[in-house]
UniProtKB/TrEMBL annotation, chain A:
It comes from the Bacteria. Residues 1-23 form the signal peptide. Pfam families: HupE_UreJ_2 (PF13795). The chain crosses the membrane at residues 188-210, 230-253, 259-278, 285-304, 316-339, 351-369. This is HupE/UreJ family protein. InterPro entries: EF_Hand_1_Ca_BS, Put_HupE_UreJ. Keywords: Membrane, Signal, Transmembrane, Transmembrane helix.
Length: 380, 395
């Protein structure tokens, strides 16, 4: 047959083969990995027909591959396979083949390598897959990766074609640092959008630039007593709500939302009233601490709504709490300098302290009624 | 959190491969247990030649002559055994030139053939336009270009490319090439007469078997389009007598038999364990019409195979999957979606037909308006196509 004729054979193929008259599919291997702590296990299904191309499994050339032809070559198969898979976390993972089986897929028999090894920590898993690409450019590695993290399992799937041999998989979906920032932002947002907490803080801070002398408020003479009062108040509030936030989030204490929400409203109301008529202990940090315990439960219910994975609970707790503190410090930083500057102004007491407290008290009373009776009338 | 949830949703789709077709792994009891049969047995002489070529390439992967011979052999084997693995292996052999913008013309031809097999029609057409520009007398390049133009619906371009094969190739090739185009462009009678002249004058006998069966199967398809059932059957059988294993002809003949409501003959033609997806689909359709229990087995196997193809990201099977979803799973909405995706890429008579059938079955005839316009514009003939198009026009 002339060269031209041979070529036409191929052309006829092209013409007739326009519809895919194919048996099965091109070559794939199926790699299934499970990473749990420092342990990497899995199975790797590789088609016998593919291994035959590189290792000539059909030694007796009878057009069939029997188990004897595979069993006696398992060491070579392992060496070939493992030589084309690099898995690394913080450092390269040591992988070995613990067992061999056979399985059938839609396009024939596969040898199943049971993989096992260790994989020391790290924020991501890098997989470098190069099986068979040198002999079959359309081969693909199909990966299913289970990342076990406490009670959670994240499943990732990926395809490795010849032009994307190396892929990196984050081990926690997002890095711990990013997660922490996310919770921190949630905390700031919550305090900024949680008017009850803000107003409670404001009610506590309105008289921080004043001191009570025989039942009447007088401006502090200089910055020191005001600063001391603010630091003591904010610290007490923080310690108290952090404690109950942690207890509630960890499931140690659990209170019904209606009760805590009503108690929070009551705490705002009482604090505002106390600014007008002394009804609470004169030491403000004690008030801040006692009511802070109540507010912590409120924060916890927000955190619970975020539907956190149990595995990153500690991280989320710290992040969220730091966010709340950040939000609250911003309020302090904005309000206290202004209040300090205005403390001697004649309008401060009647307008800011009394007017403000009355407004807060009215709002808090509304909340209290709304929440305790479960009316759902208040817009926020 | 949210990302994990999205991943978790995607898992049942992408993770289907782990369960698709995979039974429980086991350890064979005896060394003599046969695990796998290599396609079409083994041709020892050819094997040795392939091994020798591989050895030469291992020493010098850039040996163009050896690479071309090996890749060519693999493409022929891909067709003879319906084995798509051979395509990927041929591509690997051509790796030193694969990503070049202007590789040697023979590489362009092979690359185009491999690319069109994975439905990368634009890239394949680009290769062939380059090849024909560099070697205007290359009949092979024009012929392959004509194929791709026809499959993608550029019938005028295909007809022109067929004319270009003439000076370099035998008139026979040009005649068959042109008849294939005319046959889907409202000239089926003329095309049939041209082929009849070829086959009756026995000019065909001097051509390679693949060219002979190409002409015969085409003549059968044209006879079918002209509603000449007994002639169609005659030519399908003549073609299969020449090459009984030709998967394309088997599939076309099986379709003819299904249309003639002869599912029993399909079951006799195609084995229930055929490895060829196209043929298994027809066999399962026949089994279903026969009320055979094999229908469920075949449907299950097809479902696994389509899942495995989807998992690797292949989109070459859309037409077959549309037909599978319509005829066997009876989910016309899903089938219609697949058929229309396929229609955006391929425009052969089978592509038009499945799109029309799905649109009607899904109760959305207007989804196939573009297909009907296409049929009107190209004047595609055929009783079934005409009836379906009529129903879409006036539901």
């Amino acid at each position: 047959m002339t060269r031209a004729r041979r070529l036409f054979l191929a052309a006829a193929c092209a013409l007739m083969g326009a519809g895919p008259a194919f048996a099965h599919k091109p070559s794939d291997s199926y790699l299934s990995l499970r990473l749990q702590h420092d342990r990497l296990d899995g199975r790797w299904d590789i088609a016998l027909r593919d291994l035959d191309v590189v290792l000539d499994l059909d030694r007796n050339e009878d057009g069939r591959i029997d188990w004897g032809e595979v069993r006696t070559r398992l060491a070579e198969i392992d060496r070939y396979a493992l030589g084309h898979l690099r898995v690394a976390a913080a450092a390269p993972c040591a992988l070995g083949v613990a067992d061999h089986r056979v399985d059938r897929h839609s396009d024939g028999a596969y040898v199943v390598l049971a993989l096992g090894g260790s994989c020391a920590g790290g924020e991501s898993l890098s997989i470098d897959y190069s099986l068979l690409f040198d002999v079959d450019a359309q081969h693909r590695g199909l990966l299913k990766l289970d990342i076990v993290d406490g009670a959670d399992t994240h499943v990732v799937t990926a395809v490795f074609p010849a032009d994307r041999r190396q892929q990196v998989f984050p081990l926690q979906g997002v890095s711990a640092g990013t997660q922490l920032l996310g919770y921190l932002r949630d905390g700031v947002i919550h305090i900024a959008a949680g008017y009850d907490h803000l107003l409670f803080l404001l009610a506590l801070l309105l008289p921080a630039v004043l001191v009570r002398r025989q039942g009447a408020w007088v401006p502090v003479p200089n910055v020191a007593p005001a600063a001391g009062s603010v630091v003591k108040t904010v610290t007490a509030f923080t310690l108290a709500h952090s404690a109950t936030l942690a207890l509630a989030t960890l499931g140690v204490v659990s209170l019904p939302a209606r009760l805590t929400e009503s108690a929070i409203a009551a705490s705002v109301l009482l604090t505002a009233i106390d600014n007008l008529v002394a009804v609470l202990p004169s030491k403000r940090w004690i008030v801040a601490f006692a009511f802070g315990l109540v507010h912590g439960f409120g924060f916890a219910s927000v955190l619970a709504d975020l539907d956190l994975p149990r595995s990153s609970l500690a991280l989320s707790l710290v992040g969220f709490n730091l966010g709340v503190e950040t939000g609250q410090l911003i309020l302090v930083a904005l309000f206290i300098p202004l209040a300090y500057a205005a403390r001697r102004k004649s309008m401060y007491q009647p307008v800011v302290l009394q007017g403000g407290s009355i407004a807060i008290a009215v709002l808090a009373a509304g909340w209290l009624i709304d929440r305790s009776l479960n009316l759902g009338l208040m817009p926020f | 959190m949210t990302t994990f949830r999205l991943v978790a949703l995607a898992v049942p789709l992408l993770g289907a491969w782990l369960t698709a077709g995979a039974a429980a792994p086991y350890r064979p009891a005896s060394d003599s247990e046969v695990l796998e049969r290599l396609p079409a047995g083994r041709d020892r002489a050819a094997d040795r030649a392939v091994r020798a070529m591989r050895a030469l390439l291992a020493r010098d992967p850039a040996d163009l002559d050896v690479a071309l011979r090996l890749a060519q052999w693999q493409l022929q084997k891909a067709r003879a055994t319906s084995d798509p693995r051979q395509l990927g292996q041929a591509q690997a052999v051509l790796a030193p030139w694969w990503n070049e913008t202007a590789p040697p013309v023979p590489v362009l031809l092979l690359r185009a053939t491999i690319r069109q097999s994975s439905h990368a029609f634009d890239a394949a057409r680009g290769d062939l336009e380059q090849a024909t520009a560099r070697e205007p007398g290359n009949a092979q390049a024009w012929l392959t270009l004509a194929t791709i133009q026809q499959v993608t619906g550029d019938l005028a371009g295909a007809a022109r490319s067929c004319e270009h094969t003439q000076p370099a190739a035998s008139a026979t090739i040009a005649t068959i090439c042109r008849a294939a185009v005319d046959g889907v462009a409202g000239q089926a009678a003329r095309a049939y007469a041209a082929l009849d002249a070829l086959t009756s004058r026995e000019r065909l006998a001097n051509e390679p078997v693949a060219v002979q069966t190409w002409a015969m199967t085409l003549q059968a398809e044209l006879a079918e389009r002209l509603d000449r059932g007994s002639d169609a059957e005659h030519w399908y059988r003549t073609s299969l007598a020449k090459d009984p294993g030709d998967a394309y002809t088997l599939a076309a003949y099986a379709d003819f038999l299904l249309d003639a409501n002869r599912p029993g003959d399909v079951a006799a033609l195609v084995a229930s364990d055929t490895p060829v997806d196209n043929l298994l689909l027809r066999r399962a359709q026949a089994d279903r019409l026969l009320g055979s229990a094999d229908a469920a087995v075949g449907a299950r196997a097809l479902s696994d195979r389509f899942a495995a193809l989807r998992a690797r990201g292949d989109r070459v099977h859309l037409r077959e999957e549309a037909r599978f979803r319509l005829a066997l799973e009876q989910t016309p909405d899903i089938a219609l979606d697949l058929a229309l995706q396929n229609w955006a890429v391929q425009k052969e008579p089978l592509d038009a037909r499945i799109a029309l059938e799905c649109a009607l079955a899904a109760g959305k005839p207007h989804a196939a308006d573009a297909v009907v316009r296409w049929i009107d514009a190209t004047r595609l003939e055929g009783r079934q196509i005409a009836a379906l198009a009529q129903r879409v026009r006036a539901p």
